[in-house]
Structures are given as structure tokens and as C-alpha cells.
């Protein structure tokens, strides 16, 4: 036997020992105890049904026998029940807990896939394969229910949310929940696909706001150089347009949000720039009023000089006429 063949034989023996150690080291009696000891207290009936079905399946086997395939499937059932019940207990009506449920969904789906694989490749000839099929079916149903409930939670949050980026996040979470159910018998409600339209409209508005701010900066710089009031007024109008877009999406309410700080900073930047434009407008208006005042004073002085000159001329003319009479 050459070295290559020896290597593959040793690798096979290692894998075999590993499988036996992981899945084949417990008797059926020990497996029953493992399943019985799981706390299946849940908001859903499926964990309890899975536990009972799995025990019924195990009670149909020799108490003291060991079988790596039975060990493997029982281990997967145990992992699913523990993960599911843990997720269900976290299913409190707050955002963080519901997000945890959504994050754990792929793990639960992966365990179900392992169950399917173990059944298809190792347990199809099992005497009580209907119990195995029922366990897998119940697992999919339970996961589908918890995901749909979580989706409903996020949808209700979205319906009541006034701040657009947060609303979009809730809608996206809703969509993710239903997307996760597709492979286990669920479907995505048609209305949820509108999240893409909502998101697209929001980003279009952000682009309009950005363009308005850029336009405002351009006109502000022109007004600083040309000192024209009409130009700075155009800048203020551009900033007001951007601010109205941000406020339509309630971005001003994100001042204390770390997750959406970038949006609030854009809004704050528009507010600041508008304030600077108002200052320039006041400065130009003040300069204009001073100029008008100076011009008025000059005209008054010129007027006084002309009046005095006219009066002096009339007085001199009158004196000359009197002298001529005498």
C-alpha cells in the first residue's frame, strides 16, 4: 500500500471516529433524556409538538442501542428546539429583541436543512420515517410563524414611523422576515415590495437637497464677490428648498441618533449655510441702507446750499433794485 492510500485510509478512519464521537456516542435512552430535559415553554405549539414527536420516534427504538444517524438527527432536533425557544423568549416587543430573532433565523434554517439532509441521506429507510418528516414540517411551520410575527411587528413600526430613513429600515426588516420564509413555505406580500419605491424616492429627494445646497453655496460665493442682494437671496432660496426636503422626511428629529448622524449632519450643514447667507444678506442690506443714507444726506446738503444760494441771489437782486430807485 503506497503512502497516498495510507493517507486516505487514515483520513477515513479519523472522519469515522469523529462522527462516532459526535453523533454515535449516546444510547437511545440518553437521547430521550436529552430531548425530555429541553424546556419547550413557548408562545408557539410547535416546540412542544416537536419534542413529543421526537420522543415517540426514540421510544420506538432499542433503549440501549447506539446509532450515529439517530444520534445525528436527535442532536439537530435538540439544537433547533434550544435555538427556537431562545429566540422566542427574546421575542419581546422592542426593536433589539425582534432584530435578534431576525438575525437568528438563518441559523435555524440551517439546522432544518441539516435535518432534511440527514433524513434524505441517512434515515429514509427508518421504520418510523413519518415522525422524522413531521418533525421537519413542524420545525418549518414554527420558524415561519415567528418570522411572520416579527415581520408584522416591523410593519406596524414602519406604519407609525414619521422619520423616513428609520421607516425604510423597519420596512427592510419586514421584507427580510418574509424573504426568510420563502424557502420554508412562506411568501412575500406584494405590498412589501413598495419598500424599494419608498427607498428610491427618499434617495432622489436627498439628491435634490444636495444639489440645492451646492447651488446655494455657488450663489453665496458669487454674492460675496459681487455684493448683489438678489444673488444672496437666490442662495437663501436654494438653502430653504434643501431644508424643506430634509424636514419633509423629519431629518431634524435625528439629532440624537448615532445610526443616522450623516443625514442629520447634512441637514445641519444646510441650516448653517442658510444662516451665513442671512448674515451676508443683512450685511448687504445694511451697506445699502448706509449708502442710501449717505446719498440722502449729500442731496440734503446740496439742496440746502442751492436754497441758500438762491435766497442770497434774490436778496442781492432786491438790494440792487432798491438802489436804482433812489
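Q: What amino acid sequence fits the structure above?
A:
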Amino acid at each position: 500500500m503506497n503512502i497516498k492510500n495510507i493517507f486516505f485510509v487514515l483520513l477515513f478512519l479519523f472522519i469515522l471516529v469523529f462522527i462516532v464521537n459526535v453523533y454515535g456516542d449516546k444510547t437511545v435512552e440518553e437521547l430521550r433524556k436529552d430531548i425530555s430535559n429541553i424546556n419547550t415553554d413557548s408562545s408557539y405549539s410547535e416546540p412542544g409538538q416537536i419534542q413529543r414527536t421526537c420522543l415517540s420516534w426514540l421510544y420506538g427504538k432499542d433503549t440501549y442501542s447506539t446509532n450515529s444517524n439517530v444520534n445525528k438527527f436527535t442532536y439537530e432536533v435538540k439544537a433547533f428546539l434550544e435555538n427556537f425557544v431562545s429566540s422566542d423568549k427574546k421575542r419581546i416587543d422592542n426593536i433589539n429583541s425582534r432584530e435578534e430573532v431576525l438575525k437568528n433565523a438563518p441559523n435555524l434554517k440551517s439546522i432544518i436543512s441539516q435535518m432534511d439532509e440527514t433524513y434524505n441521506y441517512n434515515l429514509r429507510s427508518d421504520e418510523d420515517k413519518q415522525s422524522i418528516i413531521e418533525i421537519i414540517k413542524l420545525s418549518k411551520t414554527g420558524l415561519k410563524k415567528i418570522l411572520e410575527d416579527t415581520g408584522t411587528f416591523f410593519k406596524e413600526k414602519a406604519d407609525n414611523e414619521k422619520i423616513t430613513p428609520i421607516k425604510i429600515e423597519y420596512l427592510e426588516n419586514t421584507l427580510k422576515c418574509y424573504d426568510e420564509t420563502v424557502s420554508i413555505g412562506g411568501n412575500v406580500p406584494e405590498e412589501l415590495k413598495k419598500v424599494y419605491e419608498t427607498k428610491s424616492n427618499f434617495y432622489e429627494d436627498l439628491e435634490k437637497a444636495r444639489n440645492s445646497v451646492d447651488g446655494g453655496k455657488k450663489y453665496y460665493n458669487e454674492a460675496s464677490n459681487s455684493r448683489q442682494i438678489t444673488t444672496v437671496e437666490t442662495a437663501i432660496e436654494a438653502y430653504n428648498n434643501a431644508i424643506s426636503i430634509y424636514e419633509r422626511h423629519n431629518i431634524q428629529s435625528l439629532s440624537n441618533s448615532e445610526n443616522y448622524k450623516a443625514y442629520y449632519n447634512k441637514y445641519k450643514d444646510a441650516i448653517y449655510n442658510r444662516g451665513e447667507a442671512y448674515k451676508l444678506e443683512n450685511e448687504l442690506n445694511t451697506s445699502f441702507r448706509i449708502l442710501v443714507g449717505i446719498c440722502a444726506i449729500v442731496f440734503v446738503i446740496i439742496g440746502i446750499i442751492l436754497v441758500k444760494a438762491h435766497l442770497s441771489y434774490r436778496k442781492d437782486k432786491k438790494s440792487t433794485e432798491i438802489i436804482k430807485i433812489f
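Q: And what stands out in the fold?
A: The CA atoms of residues 243 and 271 lie 7 Å apart.
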